[in-house]
Amino acid sequence: xxxxxxxxxxxxxxxxxxxxxxxxxxxxxxxxxxxxxxxxxxxxxxxxxxxxxxxxxxxxxxxxxxxxxxxxxxxxxxxxxxxxxxxxxxxxxxxxxxxxxxxxxxxxxxxxxxxxxxxxxxxxxxxxxxxxxxxxxxxxxxxxxxxxxxxxxxxxxxxxxxxxxxxxxxxxxxxxxxxxxxxxxxxxxxxxxxxxxxxxxxxxxxxxxxxxxxxxxxxxxxxxxxxxxxxxxxxxxxxxxxxxxxxxxxxxxxxxxxxxxxxxxxxxxxxxxxxxxxxxxxxxxxxxxxxxxxxxxxxxxxxxxxxxxxxxxxxxxxxxxxxxxxxxxxxxxxxxxxxxxxxxxxxxxxxxxxxxxxxxxxxxxxxxxxxxxxxxxxxxxxxxxxxxxxxxxxxxxxxxxxxxxxxxxxxxxxxxxxxxxxxxxxxxxxxxxxxxxxxxxxxxxxxxxxxxxxxxxxxxxxxxxxxxxxxxxxxxxxxxxxxxxxxxxxxxxxxxxxxxxxxxxxxxxxxxxxxxxxxxxxxxxxxxxxxxxxxxxxxxxxxxxxxxxxxxxxxxxxxxxxxxxxxxxxxxxxxxxxxxxxxxxxxxxxxxxxxxxxxxxxxxxxxx
Length: 608
Prior knowledge:
Layout: H1 3-17, E1 24-26, H2 45-52, E2 56-60, E3 63-66, H3 68-87, E4 91-92, E5 98-100, H4 109-113, E6 118-121, E7 127-130, H5 135-145, E8 154-163, E9 178-188, H6 197-214, E10 219-223, E11 233-240, E12 246-250, E13 257-259, E14 281-284, H7 290-298, E15 306-313, E16 320-326, H8 333-340, E17 344-346, H9 349-355, E18 373-376, E19 386-389, E20 395-400, H10 402-405, H11 407-411, E21 415-417, E22 438-452, H12 454-459, E23 462-464, E24 470-472, E25 474-481, H13 482-492, E26 494-495, E27 498-499, E28 510-514, H14 522-535, E29 540-543, H15 549-559, E30 563-567, H16 569-573, E31 576-581, E32 589-592, H17 596-604
Parallel strand pairs: 1-29, 4-8, 16-18, 18-21, 28-29, 28-30
Antiparallel strand pairs: 2-3, 5-7, 6-7, 8-9, 9-25, 10-11, 11-22, 12-13, 12-22, 14-20, 15-16, 15-17, 19-20, 22-25, 23-24, 26-27, 30-31, 31-32
């Protein structure tokens, strides 16, 4: 089924609720500056085609003008978002883009965001941030706006420009410094029941499913880590795309899906009891650039080495954690956090060195000299002999054996075994025995979070509950990258000639390409067909430029409008019109003029 036909039922359902007449615009009366050349830094299809098709133009690094075609699509995405958010019980409002830096005083998110946070000083020396998200602003607002348990639950959303000071903006609208986002925030006094966070979270999950389905996107909802926003549970909505920027791991049997940071790994065999096969030998490894260089020097594979990463617990006295994984694997900080039960962060090198760690050369044997928690991934226990650091600068050892060299710690049950690495394709599924995880690529366009009381407790948002006891308010957070959705759609729906828009978010539904518009009666016929289409709810763009057919057809493919009609003196004489759907292969077909409207409706359904 074509993308257009797949969307017809959704379009008809929503159009029936509010009949509208489509608009008609002429190409010569709007701004569509198509070009044959892409910017030198454009690498992704969406960046290339958005520029070439005249949708965007760069103002500065990661900053873009949205030209008329792009703005029409952004408005259509935004309206779908509004309709589904309103239907789910949320109310729209607007917060300022600027926020006093003092709002971050209690949450410390200015520190978590680091250099990604845009800040400046005004003429009075007051430091201000440009909002990447608005958790602090809305929590501060609620502190003065809600006073009774009777005001809950509450769900508010806005569609607004956000800012992130990317070090290297790239991929056009996918990774820029100013972008358009919908962010929503819900407030509750309980987790369960109709007024609870879990109920609203499920409603937002369904609303997001409706939004991206209506936008015509092929997407997956996957379990995710909360990242700098924080919270207990979250899901990302990812557009499935072969050249997507994120990896999704999927179980083909159970349907389980998660991003790399969140994906669990199924049961793996491991044992401390593998007998040693060789003695420990120390090797001089000066200035070796990481695992690959050391492995080559020692004559082993990275999978035969141990990688020991030092973390520092946040806010506790027993602060050191050493996480050990196989040399060809990557430690997952969130899984380390879950394994030890407290927040952790990568240890600052100077502080760790002062404590006695030889950073870059740490081994599990450090346990003997430094008080710490040792956490080991199962795959780091499945061989009798390992190469690892020697706990001495510029030195490694071979022949390390867990049962011999860590006997005391193992006997005292002080070596914790847990899933602490990033999952990979081919790992056991956590949901279906015998199944293997498969890797897919995607682009994140939405993210929903259960924040809990992270912000309310930090900023003093509490009310008296039904029992007249003071209680911190429970929060949820729900974001959609509106401008990212536009770009992600192109990444997943294009060909060598240009964009292929799904009907629902195309800037126009139909394009009428006029050949020899100055000839008598040609524009009259084009306007008549446009009016017929508009009466059925189609937005129509008439290409009335005085240009050769070839360039106009190339531009039609480039801008990607779903339906194309071609009118010329020749077709008028034959009482015909040429018709083609952008998603169809092959040439346009000649149809009777009185069948033109029927052909459009047959492809899309009436939009009225």
